[in-house]
Amino acid sequence: MTDNHKFFTGLLLGAAAGAALALFLNSEKGKEIISNVKSSADKMEDEFQAKWEEVDTVMNDLIAKGKSFLEELEQKATQSTS
Questions:
Q1: What is the rounded radius of gyration, in angstroms, for the C-alpha atoms of the chain?
Q2: Whole-prediction pTM value?
Q3: CA 17 to CA 81: how far, in whole Å?
Q4: Burial level of 22, CB count in 10 A (0-12/13-18/19+)?
Q5: What does the pLDDT read at residue 4?
Q6: Residues 69, 72, 77, 80: is their CA dihedral positive or negative?
Q7: Which long-range contacts (CB under 8 A, 24 or more apart) does 37-42 make?
Q8: From CA 12, how far away is CA 1, in angstroms rounded?
């Protein structure tokens, strides 16, 4: 089998697969699958956003506690050297 023959065979098979996929995705079942995928992606986005907000809140609390702790240490260090 020559390289040209392999190339054209691959091109033909790729075109056939693309056409079959296009026909399937335009059918009712294909549209239903696309709708389900979009719905699942939207749900995952909402869940991710909620978790991200939780992480942001926890991180802000930890930063505030860390700053407070450092301020207390600084005050104690200042008082002990006075």
A1: 30
A2: 0.54
A3: 79
A4: exposed
A5: 86
A6: negative
A7: none
A8: 15
Any idea which residue has 């978790």 for tokens? 51
Longest dimension (CA), the chain: 91
Total tally of structural domains belonging to the chain: 1
Identity of the residue numbered 58: V
Q: Does the pLDDT value for residue 11 go beyond 90?
A: yes
Instruction: Give the distance from CA 73 to its chain's centroid.
Output: 40
Q: Which two tokens stand for residue 53?
A: 């907000």
- Domain holding 68, by residue range, is 3-81
d(CA 65, CA 78): 20
Q: Which two tokens stand for residue 16?
A: 């056939």
